[in-house]
Amino acid sequence: MSRPSALTTHVLDTAAGRPAQGVAVELWRMEPAPECVARAVTNGDGRTDAPLLAPDNFRPGRYELRFAIGVYFGLPQPRFLEVVALPVGLAEGQGHYHVPLLCSPWSFSTYRGS
Q1: What one-character DSSP code corresponds to residue 75?
Q2: From first to last of its 114 residues, what are the pLDDT tens digits of the chain?
Q3: Residues 60-92 pLDDT 10s
Q4: Which of 21, 34, 44, 76 is deepest in the core (most CB within 10 A)?
Q5: Rounded distance, CA 54 to CA 14, Å?
């Protein structure tokens, strides 16, 4: 049975051990030509207030999530990490895609959550 697809995210500040509030997030559709399809800022829980792709506007394809963590951490220039870009492939009927970003000023990791 095919499940409606959607995309959400959240950001965790692993250096401080808390959700990362105020991180600017962009979602880019990479095909046929790169196009920004959503912008949001994380709330007090480190999440965006709405899905970046809701089921009603979901299109399968190649995307890139861009997180402005350099500004969030406020480190002097040049920053080791400025924008973390995560390329993701999204397929129809695969249900909810949740992509958390765990980050510090010096590192990041991610996974497909639920």
Answers
A1: P
A2: 567 789 999 999 999 999 999 999 999 999 999 999 999 999 999 999 999 999 999 999 999 999 999 999 998 888 999 999 999 999 988 889 999 999 999 999 999 998
A3: 999 999 999 999 999 888 899 999 999 999 998
A4: 21
A5: 28
- Coil, strand or helix: which one is 72? helix
Amino acid letter, residue 59:
R
CA–CA gap between residue 18 and residue 6 (Å, rounded):
25
Percent of the chain residues past pLDDT 90, beyond the cut: 87
Paired tokens of 103: 């980050």
Gap between the Cα atoms of 15 and 26, Å rounded: 23
Scored b (16 or more CB within 10 A) or e, 71-80 reads: ebbeeeeeee
Q: What are phi and psi of 113, to 5 degrees?
A: -90, -165
Residue from 52, 39, 54, 48 nearest 21 by CA? 48
Whole-Å CA distances, 1 to 40, 93, 95, 96, 98: 31, 8, 10, 14, 20
